[in-house]
Amino acid sequence: MNDPKLRVLSEADPRASNGIASPAGEAGPLLDFVGVGFGPSNLALAVAAREAEAGRKGLFFERNSKFQWHPGMMIEGATMRIPFLKDLATLRNPSSPYTFLQYAKARGRLERFVNLTDFYPTRLEYNDYLGWVAEAFAEQVQYGTEVTRVSLLTRKGETVPWCFCVEVTKTATGDTAQHLAQNIVYAPGGRPRIPSGTACCSDRVVHSSRFLPHFPRQFEDHRRSYDFAVVGGGQSAGEILEYLHQRYPRASIHMLISGSAPRPTDDSPFVNEHFSSRHADAFRNYSPEKRAAILRELRTTNYGVIELSLLENLYRSSYLDEVKGRQRLYIHPFSRVQAIQAGEEKVRLTVDAKYGASPSSMSFDGVVLSTGYDRSLDPEIFAEVLPLCKKDSQGRLLLSRRHRLQTDPEMGCGLYAQGLGESSFGIGETLMSLLPFRAREIFADICRRTPAAEERSAKALSGAYPPERHLEHSSDKLYAVMERFRFATLISARREDEPVITQVPLILDRGRGAKGVLFGHMDRANPHVELLEGRCVTALFHGPNSYISPHVYATDQLPTWNSLTVHVEGLARLITDREELVKGLCAIAEHSDQEIGAFRLSPDDPRIETLIGYIVGFEIEIDEILGRFKLSQDRDEADRRRAALAMARRTELGERDIIERVLGQSLREDEERSDGEVFQNHQGERIYDRQQQ
Predict the structure, then answer these.
(1) Does the reported pTM lie above 0.85?
(2) Residue 370 pLDDT exceeds 90
């Protein structure tokens, strides 16, 4: 990669013991991670990082002057749409000191809260809970600080970005600073979505994110006969509609929606299963077509819908208005706002009727745009990073299973995104249900990929291992080893000091996932099965290896051992679908035996029914591939070729020798006798003629 914007790190900086040095200006010590934004997503990350006790150094930057969560929608009496148990930690770690119940206890309200017998706290109380947790991390957060630019830095002699330079500005003073970080976790929340061709061009036109206290200040006379418009049909629109209806008893309130009527939220228990961590993992493994279909079907759980009890209250209030002789609540279906023009006294909306009618003009005293949020990687902040990011056929950023952006080439530093991967992780990606699980995955990935500061210092003093010359970066060569030597060693950990190891054939499918997916199966009784679902595993593919005698070289050398190995890390999932499992079993023979007339397993083979109850299938979506190819790279070209030839010969002879030793007899006699024979299977069917091979 030759990008003129990449800055090479100097060797003069005293921080070179960490393998880095600063660009122009003082940048402070190298951080393990920087969090951009400090809302609930990165707050959950801070909690997960502290509870992991991994000794990592992190710093968060938040543009607001203090912690806040949807301040514009803190309407009194509005309740959460998720139960309190789906807080920042409980479902991941019920004993965490940062759960909602711990908060209620600390506030002296736990028993009274229990007496409510209500799983859904008010939004005001939940905001107080989030603020209470945020106080515990005040020393890690710089409030009133905006990230303005992220640059890529390399080490001298290398071209692959190794760390980030994060440039920040103090919003109050304009002072700037730079910070070096090996990882960035970007959690921007959402930017208010404004209808195309319009803008919040007046104090009387606000997005719902700024509704409180801004809008009521513009309309202080609660006895006046205002005309208000609320654009949108989601939960916030419903809450604002109710607020205006209750507090402005003489006002007329108009709701403009794109559908035929306000719709209720689908929050039935079976549908809510889609907001579980298990379903998020399963969703990622579906085909793009299936994912898109599920997202369309589940829109009524989150988008353009209102909680049923609130809808019923609105309808009841509207009916009572009619009883009193005055209609105050108006629903305008199939209506889309095309333009907004603020005059001296009124705000004029140009409204397009969805089905054929001509655009109409409507005038209001005030307008609230409850039109949702856009979520994307900021193109100005990440101008240097975006050109390296991989995208799918729809132009969406590709994320790893652990929410790291996929780049080409793969960077030595990691950029993670929270809330930007709905197409990859499902409908719960932008909501709070999955925060504790996502935070755990992101922090675990940071720890796995990035050595701690102490490790970096030790590595700088002792030298890199494995040496760069032994690292293979060609994906074609790495995949070639994985496809030729499929019998791999699978490693999991029951506890930190208790590895569990199984040897299994693993079949690679390059066409799935960012780096491919491995299929395998094992005996159902194998205790390793319990350590697969949703867990990180390591698979070692062992290629040829051999002792290399000094006699091989033309130059004077000591003996050595050469080898080809590929280390793969990824997240495993159990295959529960029978058809999917059988498909994987059939692929083993298909990929492993390419001979003419080779055996092929048929999906309807009756013997499968007998076998399938005794095995468990699983998949590993590959996150990392490390190739260690030790092939005398420190020798000249002639010696390298001699060593390669010696390894090839020794490998062939060694494999034959050990097979004969295990069998206790020579294979040469059988091999000579079989030459020219037609091989048949147990049913007497012709398989192939050896002389034709």
Answers:
(1) no
(2) yes
